[in-house]
Amino acid sequence: MKKDIDDFVVIGSGFGGSIPAQKLVKAGYSVTLLERGPWRNSLPVKSMGISDRASYPHGWKLYSHVLRTFHAGYMPKKGMTVNKYGLFEAFHHKGLITACTSGVGGGSHAYSGLHQRATVPNFWDGYAEGLSDETMERHYVEVMEKFASRKKTPEDKVPNTTAELFADSELFTDKNNHDEPANGIQFPETPGQPKIVNTEAGVQRWESSYDDDSFLGSPSGAKSSLDFIYLAEAIKDGLVVKDLCQVTSINRIENGEGTLYCVKVMDLANSIEREFYSRKVILAAGALNTNKLLFHSRDVAKGLSGMPQLGKNIGTNGDHGGYWALQDEGKDYSKGLPIHGPIGIKGEEDTYTIACGIPGLQHVPLPASIKTKLSEGVILAGMGQDACDGVASYKQGRLSIDYDASNSKIFDDINRCMDIAEQKSAKKIYRLPINFTVHTCGGAHLGSSIESGVINAEGEVFDNPGLYVTDGAALPASPGGPPSMPIAAWASHVAEGIISRGEAGKR
Ligand SMILES: Cc1cc2nc3c(=O)[nH]c(=O)nc-3n(C[C@H](O)[C@H](O)[C@H](O)COP(=O)(O)OP(=O)(O)OC[C@H]3O[C@@H](n4cnc5c(N)ncnc54)[C@H](O)[C@@H]3O)c2cc1C
């Protein structure tokens, strides 16, 4: 039987996957996007005419839909899948917990909507000729324009901004030494009176009510997610999105007509195995699952070979946080944007720390007294460039990361800031007892040669032509600030390179 062969198969629909998928179909290529998670039940997705939508972990669904899969060394090697419709996947490694998301739109459902270039200066410089902060700039600009992201202003009347909280403070400031990030949020035209608006692609979304645009998802669509910002338009251009399709391996086939890839999939809706064929594969399953898929495809399925640097240079972006029990009676810090803004200690503004409430907390099924108590404080999240020296390995079907936080000065810096904040405010910061990151990067990283990286400046795996990596795994180092825009810019750069070189046959 003759196989259907796509020009491109894209694996994963987060920042690394949705952006190339949209660009490649727009350029006239046939593209199938494989995503293991479901479409989410938001106003935009409903208005796109998608009928099978899974709940966010909201209301009582918090308990059934928050966790997809949990992995740990003491568990079965496939981990424990609680609910295939769950939002988060977590991995417990030695001394480190890493988490990522699942669903059409990937991490854009969980993210706080902070849009920012890498905060590390000259982040893209020095890896390969022709690649630099300067050449990446137009990709940042284009993606942020597509998201219509912008900084909040006093006219937006956003509650609980750090600018407002610290306006009269002698101790704290909303200015640290980093530029304030923009927000991927639909700000209300008239503050306090959110209404439904239409996007250019004809999708409906609510303006933000500054209440529920949470890391548990934004059913109103006020927080910008990739499913409707990128994929709505791409579907109209011919993109085929297969949700609940979990890729199990990538297999390279060399025949007389050149390289072909067979992507094996478990169709989670019907529990059947399927195969997709394409000349080119864009791998964007998120840093953790991209590493896992590459290891599995090489070491177990024997579908790929080489990649001597695979699993190296894993970073956590210096993520370290805690809950600052401000106990400001009568305050409700759960209101506002997902992130209230940057926070610096006067005279000590170097470390990137942000404060956020717990948006949507009031809708969580917990006793009112607990919700009130929690909403009187904020979460502090510090980040910055770490040593990026973690090593991922894959043994007996299990991905584990060896990461020694004591190699990275950033954690001392953040802890010092938290110590000062605690002393100056006389309010306790309850820190996480274990390193925890939602910003894993590296492992299939950019390098100047096969001795220093897995992919080249075009995003192509050095020794597996036609296979590209465009997600967080591709980053050469931790970006220091929120990583979605560096990943998005990289994905845009790779897709445009493919299009401009005219690779693969068009329809
Ligand atoms: C709570 C939270 C808050 C955050 N806040 C911010 C923020 O404000 N700003 C910011 O810049 N970043 C933020 N981030 C980080 C940001 O979400 C990630 O850096 C970003 O989503 C990574 O993009 P990606 O394309 O690498 O992977 P993802 O967005 O994770 O996408 C990967 C996709 O691949 C799918 N997938 C995985 N395995 C398979 C498989 N085998 N087959 C098929 N599909 C598969 C996954 O389901 C997922 O949809 C936050 C993250 C979290 C969790």
General description of the model:
- This protein has helices at residues 15-26, 43-47, 61-65, 133-146, 162-165, 226-236, 287-300, 368-375, 409-425, 484-501, and strands at 5-11, 31-34, 39-40, 53-54, 67-72, 80-81, 88-93, 96-101, 114-115, 172-173, 182-183, 196-198, 204-206, 240-242, 245-255, 258-267, 272-283, 312-315, 320-324, 341-342, 344-345, 352-356, 378-383, 391-395, 398-402, 429-431, 435-437, 441-443, 467-469.
- It has ten helices and 29 strands.
- The two termini are 21 Å apart.
- The protein has a single domain, classed as FAD/NAD(P)-binding domain (3-Layer(bba) Sandwich).
- The longest helix has 18 residues, at 484-501.
- By secondary structure, it is of the alpha/beta class.
- The strands form nine sheets. Strands 1, 2, 14, 15, 16, 17 and 29 form a seven-stranded mixed sheet that branches. Strands 6-5-7-8-27 form a five-stranded mixed sheet.
- The model has no long low-confidence stretch (mean pLDDT 95).
- Residues 11-17, 34-37, 99-103, 106-107, 110-114, 215, 246-247, 284-287, 289, 293, 438-439, 471-472, 482-485, 487 line the site of flavin-adenine dinucleotide.
